[in-house]
Fold Sulfotransferase.
Amino acid sequence: MNLFAVFEVKRDAYREWNRRTSLRKTKLYSIIVAVTLMSVVMASYILTGGKKGILLNPSSFQYGTLTENADTVASHEEESSYVSNLSAVQNYANIKLVIKTIASKIEFATRRLPDFKELVKSEPHMFSVIPREFLENIKNPCWFEEYKANSTADPYGTNLYALYSKRFRTLFDYLRNAFRDHLYQKENKLCRFRCLPYFYIIGQPKCGTTDLYDRLRLHPEVRFATSKEPHWWTRKRFGIIRLSEGFHDRYPVEDYLDLFDLAAFQIQDQAHGNATTQYKHNIAIGEASASTMWDNNAWIYFYDNSTNGEPPFLIQDFIHAVQPDAKFIVMLRDPVERLYSDYLYFGIANKSADDFHEKVTESLQLFESCLLEFSMRSCVYNTTLNNAMPVRLQVGLYIVYILDWLSVFNRNQILVLRLEDHATNRKYTMHKVFNFLSLGSLTEQKEAEITKSPASNTRRPADKNLGPMLPVTREILQDFYKPFNVKLADVLQNDSFLWEKRGPEEGLCLLQTARGRPPWLCWEPRVKGLEAQPSRDPWPPSGGAPVPEYPGNPALPPHQEVLGGRRQGDTRMRSRHFRHTGAWLRRNAGKQLEPIRVPI
Ligand SMILES: *[C@@H]1O[C@H](CO)[C@@H](O)[C@H](O)[C@H]1NC(C)=O
Ligand SMILES: *[C@@H]1O[C@H](CO)[C@@H](O)[C@H](O)[C@H]1NC(C)=O
Ligand SMILES: *[C@@H]1O[C@H](CO)[C@@H](O)[C@H](O)[C@H]1NC(C)=O
Ligand SMILES: *[C@@H]1O[C@H](CO)[C@@H](O)[C@H](O)[C@H]1NC(C)=O
Ligand SMILES: *[C@@H]1O[C@H](CO)[C@@H](O)[C@H](O)[C@H]1NC(C)=O
Ligand SMILES: *[C@@H]1O[C@H](CO)[C@@H](O)[C@H](O)[C@H]1NC(C)=O
Ligand SMILES: CC(=O)N[C@H]1CO[C@H](CO)[C@@H](O)[C@@H]1O
């Protein structure tokens, strides 16, 4: 499978499209000349003391859909701005057609659910480790697992999380020391206590999940995995660590479970009456990988492609099969703003509003061409397409993912929040979360601590201040996302998911408590800032400033992961043969794989 070739084909289509647009150039040119003349007239009008407002009033130019751009063109006097805006004007008329086509192809079809047997067949090891039933009287899904290893062996010696992340060494040392004390004699067997999370924060990237995580972890009943974002279900399970590296060995489920051992020890201690807090038996374990909701990009390498290009299994099918009672928290924001934030955070060098506009246009083109051939679900989960799009349009199609989660879980198991609400009223969102997780009540002092606004790190990083996206880009994206938002608001029965109201969040620029993180993005006086950072600290906070795993690590620029070296043409160079170790569908084994682009 050569993703690159597919992409080249698409680029040809793009070029073809550009050729078509150039035919309209003549027509546009005359418009521009007219605009130029107009602005000269206007300028002299102003100079002679005319009404200033007329210049800014679009209705004084009768250009139909071009009004907004013509307006901008007219308000700039330098020749160069005409040139730079020409392409935006040109794009706009054509991209409207693209969005129209996309809108006509939108469908929310039900998916075929895999049966349990099929799931077990594809993940036999996972299902052999996790029991079908969990212990009663414990909030989390926990169980006793027979410990067969030789008593001198290191219980965490082969853990791949520990192996690949030096930051966890101290933590795993602690676990090693506590391990023997927590082995349990049960019916003449030596057992260890194992737990899965009670709840998951599953998405979306750049929507404030990190802020939610940072606040929630202050609740005395909440314990998170030792890695904030284990990305096990979506990536590590398939051997994906960094996209640029292709596939590694798959992380076995035991390695994932080890991340909950610290919390499991505490639950065990409580059960034996050694607890120091008043919150007995109520610990709620959480996991906060912001890829869980949407990222199924690994599927094409592992599963049969016989379902019309749609993945036969999604992440949620497996989670549902092992823990049907799990709870999920989703934080969303206006998808238009999310995309720009995503671009600014993960984008390559030389970012600008113009560059963003170009990338949005190209991505919409690619998305459209996929929809002309395939179903909407297959395009949203199409790894090739997702890798080819220079901005991650698909991540903002919230409803597509939500509906697929609702195909296996109940509505009341998924809490959907909005970043805009969280930014204006953290008390409101945190209360919703506490209720949703059935957490005990807090002292006023503790609650104030959890919901307080971040006191420090409110500097506005000038170097990251690229200004807002172009108004024309915003309009295009709003048009694109609108039908999806309409469906989302319908399914969630709340019109605030239309993101139509602007205003209450104006002037807000909340910055997150940053622990050695890159400076915060805050580029205009609307809600910005409470966005997920891809790098995680171990829990609990260890001494010293931890080095972010990626892509905050300066040695590994984020854009490499985002673009997978696509533009540099070195994609193939960095890909590796998939080293397959388990009993998996080996459709692609032995082939040269392209790296999957899966930044969070
Ligand atoms: C445990 O394993 C080590 C090497 O892995 C071996 O040297 C030792 O004899 C084993 N001990 C027992 C009690 O089996
Ligand atoms: C719990 O406390 C008892 C005595 O109070 C002690 O014997 C036991 O080792 C403790 N258990 C753990 C796991 O610390
Ligand atoms: C994904 O999209 C590309 C480009 O539109 C297409 O060639 C490919 O067949 C699609 N893959 C699947 C699995 O549908
Ligand atoms: C997957 O299936 C679709 C539809 O059957 C096909 O068009 C596409 O080329 C396939 N993709 C791959 C990567 O095999
Ligand atoms: C970014 O711009 C600078 C200066 O114009 C240029 O030297 C550099 O090569 C550009 N980088 C990329 C990745 O385009
Ligand atoms: C809709 O959501 C907003 C916050 O986004 C909330 O204030 C409001 O109560 C919700 N309405 C309903 C009917 O749930
Ligand atoms: C709509 C649009 O593209 N406006 C741009 C026109 O060019 C000037 C100068 O380059 C930009 O500042 C505008 O944003």
User: Anything to note?
Assistant: The beta strands are 142-146, 184-186, 189-195, 199-203, 222-224, 284-287, 327-332, 414-418. Residues 500-588 form one domain.
